[in-house]
Write a structure and sequence with these properties.
The complex is a heterodimer. Chain A is mainly alpha-helical. Chain A contains 14 helices and 6 strands. A two-stranded antiparallel ribbon of chain A has the order 1-2. Chain A has a two-stranded antiparallel ribbon with strand order 3-4. In chain A, helix 1 crosses helix 12 and helix 2 runs parallel beside helix 7. Chain B has one domain: Formate dehydrogenase/DMSO reductase fold (Up-down Bundle). Chain B is globular and about 55 Å long. Classes of the chains: A mainly alpha, B mainly alpha. Chains A and B meet through helix 2, helix 3, strand 2 and helix 13 of A and helix 3, helix 4, helix 5, strand 2 and helix 14 of B.
């Protein structure tokens, strides 16, 4: 058996590299959809304003996509370097799902990203739009496969454990495992919601700075409409996902609720300090019956408690409990922002209200925090298992890899990713501060034919 | 199941070969970066690979992912065995990959990103060569699990293959630059291609001599019985291609040097496959011992049969959109615009 420190270090390393990675696809999945929308509107109306929006956001897309690619390649190898036993045991199930992601999504994205970024003067406007659309479809297909793989580990079915590894009996059962539809919808909506708030925040920043007001106002309006739909939708999807988790991973729910005893009339703790050693909470501030009402829709509903399983089978409660509250809190702040936007629009103040714009600017990175918090809930909440109820995390790591090697590479990841993130933010802020290019032509004179010869800022020849 | 195992092995091999050739030339462009005549040449060089590098690197993910798909046990042996060189490769690829966007946005820090592009490409190529050598020299496996230490991969032979791959990728990069540029840069790339072509030839010869000496099984594969007659075309064609490479560079052909470099890689790869077959982890793990269960292999192979031809078609399309000479102005020129 490997020493325990190698396991903790491998878990820390994976948590860090996967959390770092997910930030970038979260933005690119959503942004790809918005780019399709901007380009479609431009093709349809010929208005230059949509083209300016496209060309501004496509730069941010490219910067972010590159970060996603390089941090994603690390993951596809880290499965094997640090988690050799997991690879050997679950490879027959998860390998093909990841393989299909590469085949149907990564190649599609990579193949047409070049056309999307550099093809403006090489292909016609319709073909360019097709490239944008295919990249957007690629991002969604990618999410489909990887979330299917993740969900199978949470709610495994369709495979039998034979001779030291899984053998698949039914691929449809594997792909469409019980938690997959919920996780897929919850995560893709999280991507769109995060992107929506980023676009709202950046546009609000330009509105406040009086920088290319007309373009910023258009984007702000689009984002606030999207937010009005997505924020309540996400709360509904989250609730449904939670009910699904209650059915399949009750201990994760118990940790989210901070509920130690199986009980009816279970309260919802707004605040508490879970104490795993003592198997209790300190300083509880609770809504009576709240947990039973949310999870069972009845005050007498019985909610599972953590003490149903021995302590070594419980997830770390504190992280799950608090991550859940951060995610939900931000979700409701998004709902508030959307509602405020609708009210301001109704009063004709959408782009005039300085306080609304300031709120949007402050909220702009919050989607990333909520997404990460959500992943903490689902990933820490399924501990101590990599395959829920079947394969322990401790039995998943590479037996021969030493703690020293994992520690060394972990420190390197911290330094390298830290530096890269700094550079990314620096160049991102540079792009955001500059904003979209100013409108050159009066809207009424702009003709759709003019698109063809137009060159994006990205490929203007350098002097 | 044996047939399925061999087909699966061929799919992985094809993915790795695609990767080596495609990312080989853009890593090669990175290796040549600091030696380019000027900043404008560097802009041209980076623009010549900017629209395609991401697709090229995806073949590496297919190679790694494919190993997990078809041979999960081999994946679980190889990755811990090659832990440190793989990590070095991944870190290097990160620095190489982010350069495209960062260098383009950079103003004063352009030299920093030039260095990141060079070192990223160089270390990635070297690490891949080390991986090749470490695989050929053999991996200590017990009970289908890696049973060696963290530094088993390190040997004079793996260092040699590391240097060989750096030279080989450099050659691919230089001949790609010949194809995609004109004038002063092209002349410079021709000179670089001759030097790197020589280096590649020496490395290939050294590896071809050392491998059979190191492993009697491989010597027997090539020289046992009448095998040499069957396999003789591989070294003979390699020699002919080497001649064509230098001739085409000196006679100022534009595409032929790149094609003959690619041909050299294909033949080198074929030679390697002859040496190692049927082992996926030499010297003792054949493909059929570690192939995934039938349900996984058939499912994945159906996917490969349907999707891979489509991938190849639009990859060719994507390359064709950016056919012709690259310029310093478009794409990822580093200068501030507007």
């Amino acid at each position: 058996m490997p020493p325990i420190d190698a396991e903790i270090l491998a878990r820390l390393q994976f948590a860090f590299t996967v959390a770092f990675h997910i930030l970038f696809p979260t933005l690119t999945i959503g942004l790809a959809g918005f780019l399709v929308f901007f380009e479609a509107k431009h093709l349809q109306t010929g208005e230059e304003i949509w083209l300016r929006l496209y060309k501004f956001w496509v730069k941010i897309f490219a910067l972010t996509f590159g970060m996603g690619v390089v941090s994603g390649i690390v993951l596809s190898y880290q499965f094997g370097t640090n988690w050799a036993e997991w690879s050997r045991i679950t490879g027959p199930v998860l390998g093909p799902l990841i393989g299909f992601e590469v085949l149907t999504a990564f190649f599609l994205e990579a193949g047409f990203l070049g056309v999307m970024l550099f093809g403006w003067d090489k292909v016609g406007p319709r073909l360019h739009f097709l490239a944008t659309t295919l990249v957007a479809i690629g991002t969604a297909i990618s999410a489909f496969w990887i979330l299917s793989a993740n969900s199978w580990m949470q709610t495994p079915q369709g495979a039998t454990f034979i001779d030291g590894h899984y053998v698949v009996d039914d691929w449809l059962a594997v792909i469409f495992n019980p938690s997959f539809p919920y996780r897929f919808l919850h995560m893709t909506t999280a991507s769109y919601l995060t992107t929506t708030v980023v676009i709202a925040g950046v546009s609000a920043f330009h509105l406040l700075a009086n920088n290319k007001r007309e373009i910023a106002a258009r984007a702000f309006s689009v984002a606030m409409w999207a937010l009005l739909v997505l924020a309540p939708l996400q709360i509904f999807l989250g609730d449904q996902h939670g009910l699904n988790t209650l059915e399949h991973q009750p201990m994760k729910i118990a940790a989210m609720e901070g509920n130690w005893e199986t009980q009816s009339h279970a309260p919802f703790h707004i605040f508490a300090i879970p104490d795993q050693k003592a198997q209790t909470n300190h300083l509880e501030l609770s809504i009576p019956w709240g947990s039973s009402l949310i999870l069972k829709h009845s005050p007498s509903g019985v909610v599972p408690g953590l003490n149903e399983v021995p302590m070594e089978d419980q997830p770390p409660v504190g992280i799950v409990f608090w991550s859940f509250r951060v995610m939900v809190g931000i979700g409701f702040l998004f709902l508030a922002l959307g509602a405020w936007g609708a009210w301001a629009r109704w009063r004709g103040q959408l782009t005039e209200s300085k306080w609304l714009s300031r709120f949007a600017v402050v909220m702009s990175p919050a989607g990333f925090v909520a997404t990460l918090a959500g992943w903490f809930v689902t990933e820490v909440g399924r501990q101590p298992w990599t395959v829920y109820g079947a394969l322990r995390t401790a039995d998943s790591i590479s037996p021969t890899v030493t703690g020293a090697s994992v520690a060394t590479t972990l420190v390197l990841f911290l330094i390298v990713y830290g530096g890269l993130f700094g550079a990314y933010l620096y160049y991102l802020m540079k792009l955001i501060r500059r904003g979209p290019d100013a409108l050159t032509v009066k809207e009424t004179e702009e003709k759709p034919e003019a698109i063809r010869g137009a060159r994006p800022g990205l490929v203007v020849p350098a002097e | 199941m044996e047939t399925l195992a061999i087909i699966s092995g061929a799919v992985i091999g094809a993915a790795i070969l695609m990767y080596v050739v495609l990312d080989g030339f853009d890593l090669g462009v990175g290796i040549l970066f600091p030696f380019a005549p000027d900043e404008k040449a560097r802009d041209t060089m980076i623009n010549s690979v900017a629209p395609v590098w991401d697709g090229n690197e995806t073949w590496l993910v297919l190679g790694g992912g494919g190993l997990l798909v078809f041979f999960p046990t081999a994946y679980s042996i190889a990755l811990p065995a090659f832990y440190l060189p793989i990590m070095a490769m991944l870190f290097a690829l990160i620095f190489r990959g982010v350069t495209f966007e960062f260098r383009h946005s950079a103003h004063t820090s352009i030299h920093l990103w030039n260095r990141s592009f060079f070192w990223g490409s160089l270390v990635a190529a070297f690490a891949q060569g080390v991986l090749l050598g470490a695989l050929v020299q053999g991996v200590h496996v017990e009970d289908l699990r890696y049973a060696g230490g963290m530094f088993d991969w390190l040997s004079p032979f793996s260092i040699l293959t590391g240097i060989g791959v750096v030279a080989g990728y450099g050659l691919l990069g230089a001949t790609w630059v010949i194809y995609k540029t004109e004038g002063e840069i092209q002349d410079w790339a021709r000179r670089a291609a001759i030097v790197l072509g020589g280096g590649t030839m020496i490395a290939m010869a050294a590896v071809s001599i050392m491998t059979p000496l190191m492993r009697p099984m491989i010597a027997d594969r090539w020289f046992g019985g009448i095998n040499l007659v069957y396999f003789a075309p591989v070294p003979l064609l390699t020699g002919a291609l080497a001649v064509w490479l230098f001739y085409s560079i000196l006679s100022r052909r534009e595409l032929a040097p790149f094609l003959s470099s690619v041909g050299l890689f294909v033949l080198g790869f074929l030679g390697l496959a002859i040496s190692l077959y049927p082992n996926i982890i030499p010297p003792s793990v054949p493909v059929w011992d570690v192939v995934a269960p039938r349900s996984s292999v058939t499912f994945a192979l159906i996917g490969v049969a349907i999707v891979l031809p489509m991938v190849l078609i639009y990859t060719v399309y994507a390359y064709s959109v950016f056919h012709g000479k690259a310029s310093a102005g478009g794409g990822y020129a580093h200068h501030e615009h507007e």
